[in-house]
Amino acid sequence: MEVRNEKELPLPPGQGMFGDTATHEWRRKDTIPTAAPVAVSAADQAEFKKWRDAASSPERQEFEEWRAWQDWKRKNPK
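and the corresponding structure tokens:
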């Protein structure tokens, strides 16, 4: 086992107690790489369109009104 003192710090990358797992890399917020756009299949697009159309249905609006009433009822007990 190799012994080091505080004068030899900082340790080179990849060495030390968490050398294999912990890394530190400081980046400015404007230099963080963006994720690649996710490819969406035609089936997923069709399913999303179906969901969006269903979200504006009268049943959905009735559900939203019922939920708002439940929330009001919970916040304003007798």
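(Above: one complete record from the training split.) Residues 47 and 53 are 10 Å apart (CA to CA).
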